[in-house]
Amino acid sequence: MTSLPVLPLGPGAARGRPAMPPRHLADLDLAGRQALVAELGEPAFRARQLSTHYFGRLVRDPAQMTDLPAATRARLAESLMPDLLTAVRELACDDGATRKALWRLHDGALVESVLMGYPDRVTVCISSQAGCGMACPFCATGQAGLTRNLSTAEIVDQAVYLAGVAASGVVAGSPPRLSHVVFMGMGEPLANYTRVIDAVRRLCAPAPEGLGLSQRHITISTVGLVPAMRRLAAEELSVTLALSLHAPDDELRDELVPVNQRWKVAEVLDAAWDYASRTGRRVSIEYAMIRDVNDQPWRADLLGRLLAGRLAHVNLIPLNPTPGSRWDASPKPVEREFVRRLREAGVSTTVRDTRGREIDGACGQLAASETGSADGR
Questions:
Q1: What angle separates helix 193-204 from helix 152-167, to the nearest 10 degrees?
Q2: Is 172 strand, coil or helix?
Q3: Alpha-carbon distance 13 to 258, whole Å?
């Protein structure tokens, strides 16, 4: 695992070693599932049957796997298909095209995932940690602190569930098949490096070993954990790297992204360019537009100079403010001027489609509201 800087813990941070969930078939590759099934005294082909149900047919309930004998099904389900995610709330907006799920894990921790349907694709945004230890002050998850890392299967199960939602046809105007996964939910994916990479391999392995997604349709975000970024570049994966930059200068980024106190802007960008060079994949530069904080014209110009001529694309994000926060979104005229200056510098730039504001769409907001309501009871 990557060594991380010492960061302040939020009020929700766990102390001591949290208990990980029971083993699930998504924690294992197909060979590992076959070996475990054999240890249970069952023929190895049962592992392929289970995997076909779960990854191929998106069936998460063992009771529906009726081609397995009942006694065998119960024994295998106990060892390979424990319940990992319990739905707490599910909300929809944008005429059903955006759907957000809040899950309770086996230890009571809360995580979120989001499905976003478009005319040409279905994207899910999944969490890699319960909470986050990066302490970015404008992020609801960062304010809550880190509870624990998710297991590989807890990460994958979010995608499998939402793939099933898409397959049900309820997302009108969108294809019925999940096509894209972004690791932009709760947590810092590269702080849970091994399990996230294992999850990527499950998502991209062909069925029945995995979901059969294209690596090029997977995006892994990071606030800039440089050693892990360099490790990712050596994985020989074709995933997109998204760097949450949010400021082009160290003085401000030290405040907005505290990990910048360990790895400065120049070092983080150097690791990003190394990733682009080794993979041939364009780096996505994520930049939340925060009123009167990081949206000044001179910062647009500085960002343009840093990125000009690089294999990079800027994704400007209108901030979705958290309740009671002092941070707010930049006015639209300011946003448009920021875009103009970046494009004038020759930097490809878009503004992210705003989804889910009325359902606490920003990362961590739904979990924060659920925790707040529970504390108030």
A1: 30
A2: coil
A3: 17
Would you say 192 and 150 are in contact if contact means Cβ atoms under 8 Å apart?
yes
* Residue 286 bridge partners (DSSP): 244, 315
In angstroms, the CA 283 to CA 310 distance is: 9
Structure confidence at residue 358 (pLDDT): 58
Helices first, then strands: H and E counts in the chain: 12, 12
User: Which run of H or of E encompasses 80?
Assistant: helix 70-80
The answer to whether residue 112 is catalytic is: yes
Least confident of 95-99, 125-129, 150-154, 280-284: 95-99
DSSP codes joined into one string, 209-270 = TS----GGGEEEEES--HHHHHHHHTT---PEEEEE---SSHHHHHHHSGGGGTS-HHHHHH
> Cβ distance 195 to 149 under 8 Å?
yes
At 123 the three-state DSSP class reads strand
φ, ψ of residue 86 in degrees (nearest 5): -110, 120
Please tell me the distance from the alpha carbon of residue 315 to that of residue 339, in angstroms, as a whole number.
Answer: 10
Distance of alpha carbon 34 from alpha carbon 40, whole angstroms: 10
Q: Which is nearest to 104 in space by CA: 122, 121, 85, 90?
A: 85
pLDDT tens digits for range 320-372: 887 777 899 999 999 999 999 999 999 999 999 877 555 454 555 555 555 54
Q: Which of 335, 358, 363, 370 is catalytic?
A: 363
Q: Which of 78, 90, 112, 139 is catalytic?
A: 112
Q: Has 344 been annotated as catalytic?
A: no
Tokens representing residue 301 in the block: 């110009």
